[in-house]
Structure prediction request, 547 residues.
Amino acid sequence: MHLGKLFLNASLNFDWGDKMEQLIQQFVNGVSLGSIYALIALGYTMVYGIIKLINFAHGDIYMIGAYIGFALTTFLHVGFFPALIISMLLCALLGVLIEKVAYKPVRNSTRIAALITAISVSLFLEYGMMYFVKAETRTFPELLPNKQISILNTNAVLDIKNLYIIFVTISLMLILQYIIYKTKVGKSMRAVSLDRDAAQLMGIDMNKTISYTFAIGSALAGAAGVLVGTYYNSINPLMGVVPGLKAFVAAVIGGIGIIPGAVLGGFFLGMTETMVSAFGGSLYKDAVAFAVLILVLLAKPNGLLGRNIKEKV
Amino acid sequence: MLELQNLNVYYGAIHALRNVNLKINQGEIVTLIGANGAGKTTTLRTISGIEKAKTGKILYNGQGLDSYSASHIVKLGISHVPEGRRVFSTMSVFENLEMGAFTRNDKSQIKKDLENVFSLFPRLLERKDQYAGTLSGGEQQMLAIGRALLSRPKLLLLDEPSMGLAPIIVKEIFAIIKDINKNGTTILLVEQNANMALQCANRAYIIKNGEIDIEGDAKDLMNDENVKNAYLGG
Ligand SMILES: Nc1ncnc2c1ncn2[C@@H]1O[C@H](COP(=O)(O)OP(=O)(O)OP(=O)(O)O)[C@@H](O)[C@H]1O
Ligand SMILES: [Mg+2]
Prediction:
C-alpha cells in the first residue's frame, strides 16, 4: 500500500544517529498518517452513530476521492485546494447517492442484511472503478512544493507535504466541530445518534439527517483520498481496502459512534504504526494495529472514549 | 380535535391495537389508562407517526395524518413526551430545550417560550448548563415536558409522566399538567397511576389487551365498581 512509503522512510531514518531527531521526525510522520486514518474514521463513526451501520464501502469513497483529485489535477490542471474541495463535494454527492440507492431500502431489515449490502457496495465500487480506470497504478502530478525543511535547526527534516496534510486535517476537524455543535444539521445528527425516536419527536427529519451524515462523512473521506494521492503520488482502485479497514479499527479503538473517539483512535493508530515501523518492526505494523485493537477492547469494550452504558431493562 | 377510527397496529405478528376508537375535543384532558402491555404507548406512538397503523384512520382537525412523517406531525402541532422521558443525556438542559424548538425559526418567540418554560420549571433554569443525563428523574420529566412545550403544541401527548417518581413530585407534575391545559393546550395523558389520572382528566378511556374496554367521564369512572376493583386498587 502507499501508506507503506512512510514506513520505509521511517525505518531507513532510524540509523541516522540522534534519537531526538528521529523521534521528532517519526512524530510528524505519525501525525500525518494518523490524520488520514482520523479523516476516514470520522465517516465510519458518524454513519454508525446515526444508523448503526458499518459502512464497509467507506474506504472506497476515499479511493474515488483520490481518483477525482487525480482526474482534476491531471486532465483539467486544477490546483491542490480547488481539487480538494471539488473532490469533497463530489464524494459527498456519491455518499448520499449510495445511501439512497443501496442502504435506504434495507434500513429496516436485519443488521446482517445491511452489512452484506455494504460489502456488496464496496466490491461494486472497487471493481467498477477497475473496469473504468483499469487496475494499474496512476501517478498524481506534483501539486505541492517538493521542499524539505529542517525541524528546529536539527538534522530532522520534514517534508512540507506533511504540513499540508496536517493543516487540511485540522481545518476540516474544526469545521466539523463547528457543524456538529453549532448548526441545526449538527444538532440533529447528535440528537439522532443519542435517541432516534426522541429526535423524530422533536420534528427532526430522519432522511435528511442521514443524507447529511453520509455527505459529511464521504466528503472527509474524499479529502483523505486527495491528500494521500498528493503525498504518495500513486493511486489504484484497491487503495481503499487496507486504510479503510485500519480507519474502521481506529474508530472502534476510539469508541464507534463517538466523534472525538474517531480522531483519537486515528492518531493513536497512526502513531503506533509509525513508531513500530521506526523501530524496525514495519513488517509487523498491521499485526500490531490489530493487537492494539484487541488490547483496547479487552480493557475498554466500548473503546477508549466509550462509556459502559448498561442496557435498560 | 383528534379522532382515532378503527385503528389496528401490529408489531410483526403481534396485534397491539385492535379497532381502537378514541376522540379528543379541543381543550380537554383525556386520559388513557390500562395495565402493562395494554397498548397505551403504541397508541401514542401511532398518533405521532413513529409507528404506522395497518388499517384505520387518525384525523387531526379533520385531516388524515396517515401519510405524514413523524417530523411533519410535530409541525402540525402534536408534541409527544415519550415514556421514560428520553432526554438527550449528553446534551445540556438548554440544548435539550433548543431541540424542542427544532421545527421553529421565530427566534424571538422561542426566547420568550424558553423563559416561560423556565418560569414553569425554575429548577431547569438552575441546571441549564448541566448534562440532562445528570438530572434526577423528576427533573428529567420536567425537562421532557418543557422540551415538548417548545414546539408550541396544540395537542400534548404524555406517556406515564408519573413513572418512577416520588409521590410529592408526582403531585407537582400533575399540577403543572393542569396548568398547561388551562393555558390552552389539549392533553392526552397515558397513565398507570389511574387514581391521579382520573382526578386530573375530563374524560377517560381504559384499554385492555389492545382494545378499548371502557370509556366515559373521569368522575363517573372513578365511582364505577368495576373500574375501582380492577384499576383503583379496590
Ligand atoms: N417494538 C415492539 N416490538 C414488538 N412488540 C411490541 C413492541 N412494542 C410493544 N410491543 C407489544 O405491544 C403490546 C403493547 O405495548 P405498549 O408498549 O403499547 O403497552 P403499554 O400499555 O404502553 O405498556 P406499559 O404500561 O408497560 O408501558 C405489548 O404486548 C408489547 O409487548
Ligand atoms: Mg407504555
Chain A has one domain: 42-262. The first strand of chain A starts at residue 138 and ends at 139.
